Design the sequence.
DNA sequence: TATGAATGAGTTTTCATTCAT
DNA sequence: CATGAATGAAAACTCATTCAT
């Protein structure tokens, strides 16, 4: 039996969640610098002061929102990579495919993440947070690559660091397309292409 | 024969050039939103009003600066691609190598370019300018890919658009490393790696 | 005989008293404008709303606190002045000495009192309250002066109002020193000096 | 010959002076915390931004204004004290009389100065500035007292520091009356009384 | 051409106060 | 009695832009 209170709580998300959703919307639409706290407050249907009750500054709200949103992605990716039944090719396609899917459904967040690294270097605190965030995803990617290596799918003389860079580049380029171009993407097909490109290259045999 | 005017022009760069250089420095250091016209004026050693004599707004100064800086890169790349003596592998490595070299010596500009696309979407005018700029470079890249295709280095069934995306991704990822990581990079070696990855893939044969 | 209620009251001061103490601490430390209700609530270990149950506004809390604190001083001074066994010199030194002692042990309150008159004139309600407060102490001082006059210690042609002003000036200057300068003060010696200065002057005979 | 420009400059005070006057008016009327930059700007008939062109913060404007205003007083007092033709009694009355006169015509400034010491202790920078200011005036007063001592008007066993405190107390109390009470004051008579009180005391001979 | 004082709209942030629980 | 989440008015401060000189 669920009481009335809980029903209500489901129907109208808790204030903090409403704020996080509004922040995602507005920051995603306008970028960090052009978004105003007033807009976010309005979008969340709360007073400006309420924002500051939950987050001590615009900066903290921004980073809180990113952490919240990308936490979901990270947990899902970790779940996929922990699946022992998948061998490298399947794993690669599941991972990259999920990246694309996530970016497709959370464009704002994806855009923010793609820009964050080079873009917030005027702000030490935020910049460091994003460096750490990128590192976490890089480690995840690097785990994927090591799996390919151990299972014998990748070259024995592989330079891991460069391979990671290449993978990250492919990922962000295809994610970028999902964001920029509307209309339906064949996400699975894109993942297949990325695998083919990464493993076999685009050269003639 | 060099006339007096030109001598002077060499010694003390014309006002407009000083402004463009100062803009590059300041925008590159602080990003579009955190840079102020006052800082740029000071860095250029001119009055704030002078900025507005040459550029009607901050926005126009920014885009003028990007156009100015990347114009150099574009011309150089076109010169390389027009060289008939180079076959695809050499051409690919010259092109990508020059991208890296340019990014390495013009970090600020490179950073601005990498971010610009996703980052300025709050500003229609600037955003469109950058879309066009990216298109110009994409066309250049696509020309490179078609060369590889025509010369038989790339797969007969190549999906050109996706190949372009992949190339752009590789490029920006390796450019990003040049920017973020100090210390000397083996730019030529990176270009070789990119070629290998793009054409042969990283898979075991 | 002490009943249970009083025991409890001793152990855990009643909410209102805790608030008054906290207000004294925080207002004294930060001044009226820089103190926040939130800080006071925290210092009193009550919720912010509780403050408003006892005092209808920040202003009322402030004036309540002053009244509470200076009430003690006033009652004590009245007790001294009512003592029929003291003649003018002893009375003067007891009174001024107690002023100094009180200021020394209640620095916050003393500081607030010293400033209040000139400082809160932007706030009619508070300002009037402090005018009245000062008047009450001035009357006390004037009583002291009249005693000196009646007992023949002071000039027959004394201009009472000016004498009051002079006494008030001496008092606040020496009180100010107690507040500003740490370390032990010879409070009794200061009181003696004040008497000497007030009655005999500092000129050579 | 005075040209039109200079005439104009006389008629409409330079912007910075207008700001300083407006600041004196508004800070004096409302106190530091209750005065707003917007009000001061309006009183000076300039835009809010202009305030910040001349003073980097509210704090700096406040301290600039005090320095400006009290600088006048200090210079005048120094001129008086340097007059070799005056002996102690005349000097004392001239000095104290000028204090009163200045306070009477610059009530706002006088009020600010009286409160500053105890009142701004929440703000380190301002507080230190005022400590120094008070020290400068204390040195001036102490010079006056040493003159009286050297000329044999004051007791041979004088405790200088206490005498300074007493003088400062008398001064601020009488200055305070000038500020609080409207109507004409017999400033010269007050100065005479202060001398009498300080040197001879109010006791019967 | 070049300048820099002047502007004010727009932003983040604070905090006394309220009120449903 | 007591709480603390929610509010919004108000304040300091920034900075692109203008314009008289």
Sequence:
């Amino acid at each position: 039996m669920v009481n009335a209170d809980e029903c209500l709580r489901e129907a109208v998300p808790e204030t903090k969640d409403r704020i996080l959703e509004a922040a995602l919307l507005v920051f995603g639409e306008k970028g960090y610098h052009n978004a105003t706290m007033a807009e976010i407050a309005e979008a969340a249907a709360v007073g400006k002061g309420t924002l500051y009750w939950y987050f001590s500054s615009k900066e903290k709200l921004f980073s809180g929102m990113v952490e919240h949103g990308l936490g979901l992605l990270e947990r899902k990716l970790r779940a996929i990579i922990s699946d022992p039944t998948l061998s490298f090719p399947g794993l690669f396609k599941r991972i990259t495919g999920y990246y694309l899917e996530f970016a497709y459904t959370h464009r704002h967040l994806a855009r923010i993440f793609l820009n964050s690294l080079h873009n917030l270097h005027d702000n030490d605190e935020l910049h460091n947070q994003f460096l750490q965030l990128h590192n976490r995803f890089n480690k995840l990617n690097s785990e994927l690559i090591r799996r390919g290596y151990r299972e014998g799918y990748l070259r024995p003389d592989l330079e891991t660091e460069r391979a990671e860079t290449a993978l990250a580049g492919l990922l962000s380029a295809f994610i970028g397309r999902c964001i920029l171009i509307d209309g339906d993407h064949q996400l699975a097909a894109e993942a297949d292409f990325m695998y083919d490109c990464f493993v076999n290259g685009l050269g003639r045999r």
